Each structure stands twice: as structure tokens, then as C-alpha cells.
Amino acid sequence: MDKKAIIGFVLIMALLLLWMPLWNAIFPPKPQPVKAPIDSTAVHTPGLADTSHTKPESLATALPTTLAPPDSTATADSTQEPERLITIDTRTIRVVLSSIGGTVKQVVLKHYLNFNGEQVQFLGEQSTPEWARYGALTIGYNDRLSTFNSQSFHVEGDSTILNPQDTSSIVTFTYAAPNGAKVIKKYTFHYNDYIFDLDVDIKDPAKLNLAQGVTLGWFAPLEPTELDITQDKGKLGGFFSMGGEFDYFKKIKGDTLKQIVTGPIDWVATRTKYFTAVVMAQSEPGREVVVLGGRVAHLNPKGGTTPWEVFGAGITYDNPPADAHFAFNIYTGPLDYDRLQKMDKGLSALVDFGWKYFRPFAIAILWFFTNLHKAIPNYGFVIIVFSIIMKVIFWPLTLKSTKSMYKMKEIQPKLSEIKEKYKNDPAKLNTETMKAYKEYGVNPFGSCLPMLIQLPIFWALYAVLSNTIELRGAGFVFWITDLSQPDPSGKLIPLGIGIMPIIMGIAMFFQQKMTITDPKQKMMVYLMPVLFTYLFSKWASGLVLYWTVFSVIGILEQWMVQRHIKAEQEAKRTG
């Protein structure tokens, strides 16, 4: 959850909790009379050259790099052959491999589109920092890049389009140094998966200046995919699992980041808001993780530049033997919670569900949404059903809260009497006031209780609607074409507040007017709808839809509650 959303929630809860105490402190109570929250089909397949429009530009001043220059003592072949590109097409991804370094040059996701309506591409042309220049899955030691990453590798294998009957496709890159050292990188691709395999064999690592260790990782920063580039920016970082515990580094101090942590490393990853690249240790855990970061200026969809942070993460194996072998699984795909959960290894932690204490609620909501979506193929109507169910679940609490509000009005004369009697004795005043509350069975904060209890649901719903791939691009009706984004009509209306938030604010106003009958709280009738309308206009339209339905049902609910209370009062008078 971003900072603006957190501030919004804090403002809402502070207003709910502090309104009455502050009002009563300024205006002493007077006796009152008793009143009755899609995967799209690809339409265009961009070539590798299509990434040029996202080429990052360096900042005005040259940035220091976190990576030392390639080790000049390593022996390199002086003959350099032209780069050869190998393209492997599976059902889900297109991977472009380069004979220079035997690295991944590009990954295209066939079933997801970016803000241009083109298939999502992971990588752009990166000139800085140094560690980002040679594509993904380079080899070195911690932050030192080995020179053979810029050398030509011999290629065995051709471009291939896999079919369902194909079990796999293998491409092998071999680099033979003049001093006898050798590096072999074997890629294995599968038809129906976002995962491919990488086996690395290194003969005589010491002759390649890798005696201390070998680091392999995803050191190619991912490209933004959303129209609002800041949405991706807030999710960037270097992530890893150490001994089964999820952790990450994402704060860059100054212009660079370099973090090395020792421990059993199961996997490392980089991500954007909806997509991730993961390097998983297959044979045995690594001994260290290295996370590198830097700052660049990136072209944004509006034609200007945006400060952008780039990250890479790698797994290090210490003191490799003379004939070293390393095996990895590489995942390049969507941040799909169910898919990552089935892969185990704790990869589902990469899906941002917000604060860890609310995470179980978010997982439950996502499960409900995806399963109900099988029967109702429109997430907007799924959210409406969810809103109705939440109202039914919280009905007993709402009834109790409303009764407490009515009792508060009934005991106002008693409270005024106590305040006048003990106005010079604060301790006694507090004791007698609490005694009166207990005697009449009143909770002074009862009206806030339903909101407080629903807060985990609300926060979790925000996370699901804003961060899950299932809701990305999910339309509702009319102008609401993406429930994960703010109401687009706000771009056409003064103050930037869309049609749906305005409808929500109106519904809230009438609900508040029916709920709040105490003159001391009259300002809440106007203030709360205005505050909520402004805050929600910046959030996912799916969340606005949820709260709109919640408020509309709340109007009917208040009418039913008031009838119920009046019936009880009438029964007492006639009984």
C-alpha cells in the first residue's frame, strides 16, 4: 500500500475516533429530547527493436555505478563474432537469447498487454548502471561482472516455436577461453509454462577470476507496464528468500544500492507492480544474496522523463570446485498468487497484500473473488455480491451499534446532571460517567465499532483491487473499464473527482443523515461524505464500487434498524 493510501486511512480513522471527544471538549453536552472492489489476448507482437521507445536516459550528471568494471585480468578471446539472437516461443512467453554472454535479451508475455496495448516486454535497452548492460542471467562474483559476459558464445540450437506435443527445447551456449577455462549455459524451455531451466557448468573458475564465488541472477531491470509509471515504481526492489524467510531491499540511499547478505538463499527476484522475474536455486541453496540498485531517468508514457530506480538480484555460491555445476529454475511471468503458491518456495510472498496482519484477509477475499468469477464473469458484479454479503455478516453489529447510539441520546440528561454535580472533581466525574454508561449498557464509541472491525476487510480489499493480476484491466460497465484504476471520468471533471465517487458521496450523505441524529455530530453528515469522496477518487474504482454499494445498502439497513428500535420501544411502553 502506498503512502497516500495509508495517510487516507489514518485520516478516516482519526476522524471517526476523535470527533466526539474533541467536540465534547469544545461544546459540553446538553440534554437532548429522545427521538425515535483480464488477461487480454495479444493483438500485436513487438519485435526486439520495439523496446527502443523505453530506453532509459542517464541523469544530468553521470551516476556512480555499484558494479566494479569487468576484471581486466580475466582471459578473453580477442575474436568477437557478430551477435546471434535465438528466439524461443512457448504458449505463454517469447524469450530472446543472445550469443553475447549467453544471456536473456528479452522476455515477452503473450497474454498480457502494457499501456500501449502491446504485449508486455520485460527488458529495455539499459546503458547504466554497468551491471545492467548485458541482459539478464549474467555471471560474475557479487557485484563484479566477468568479462566473458561481453564475449561471443558458441550456440547449439535454433529459434523454435514450441507446440503442445513438444516436451522441451534446448539451447546451449559455450564459451571457451584461451587459457582452457570454459563456461556452458544450457537453457531448457517448456511449452505450457512461464518457467524455463538454466544449467551452468564452469570449468576452472579460478582462471576466470571466480575462485571466491560464482554469482548468477537477474541483473536486468524490468520495464514499467502501467500507464501511471509511479504505480510500478512503488513496487520495485530486490527480493529474496533466505532459509524460507521472505525479505527485500528497495531503498536506495544516494544514487546506488549494494547489499550482500549471507545465508541459505532459495531464490532471488525483481518485480514491477504486476510482473516478476525469479531465479530459483534448483540443486542446492546459494550462500549469499546480492541486491544492486541505481537511479536513472526513464521516459514515461506522457512523453517526459520520470526518476526511475533499477534493481538486480543474484545468488552467490562460494568457493566453486574445479568443475562447478549449478542448476536454476527461472520464472518470468505475472504475479499470480495461486500460480506462485503452487510453486511453493514461499514465492507467493512476492504478491503485495499490504500489512502482514491483514494479508490473510486479502488472500481470503482474492479466493472468494476468483471462485465467484467462475460463475459471474464480471468482477464488478462480484464486488457487488461481496458488498451484500459483508452487510449481512455485519448486520448484528450494526444493529447493536445503532441501539447504542439511541441509548446515548436517552442518557444525555443523566450525563449533564453528573457533569454539573462533579464539575470540580474530574476523577469523580469520570467514575460516575463510566458508571452511568455501564448502568444503561452504553458504549460511547459504539458507533465507531463497525468501522473499526471492518477496517481489516477494507484494507485487504484495497490491496486485492490495487495489486492483483486478476483485477488488472477488469472492466465493469460503461466507462469503468478497469476496476484496479481510479474512475477515468475524473479526468474530464473539475477537481478530478469522477462520477462514481460522486455517486458514492451522495449515498454516504443520505446514509449519514439517517444515522446521525445528534445535533453535536451534525457536521459529520457533511464532512464524512466530502472527505471520503475526495480520498476514494484517487483509489481503485473497484473500491469505490464496493463502498457505494455498501452505502446504498446502508440506507435500507438504517431504515430497518430504526423500525426495529421503534418496535422495541413501543413494546416496552405497551408491555
Quick overview:
By secondary structure, the chain is of the alpha+beta class.
Characterization of this structure:
The protein has 575 residues and is of the alpha+beta class. The protein has two domains: 3-30 and 374-574, no CATH class; 77-352, Beta-galactosidase, Chain A, domain 5 (Distorted Sandwich), CATH 2.70.98.90. The chain has helices spanning 3-26, 229-233, 337-342, 359-373, 379-393, 395-410, 412-421, 426-440, 449-467, 499-515, 522-536, 541-574, and strands spanning 85-89, 93-98, 103-113, 119-121, 139-141, 144-145, 154-156, 160-161, 169-176, 182-189, 195-203, 213-218, 238-242, 245-249, 256-271, 275-281, 286-299, 305-318, 323-334. Helix 5 (379-393) runs parallel beside helix 12 (541-574), helix 7 packs antiparallel against helix 8 (426-440) and helix 10 runs parallel beside helix 12 (541-574). The chain is elongated. The two termini are 54 Å apart.
- Per the CATH scheme, the topology name of the largest domain is Beta-galactosidase, Chain A, domain 5
What is the average per-residue confidence, as pLDDT, rounded to a whole number? Answer: 84
Helicity level, as a percent range?
A: 25-40%
What structural class do the secondary elements suggest?
Answer: alpha+beta
- CATH class of the largest domain equals Mainly Beta
- Total number of β-strand segments? 19
Task: Looking at this protein, list some descriptive labels.
single chain; 575 residues; alpha+beta; Beta-galactosidase, Chain A, domain 5; 24% strand
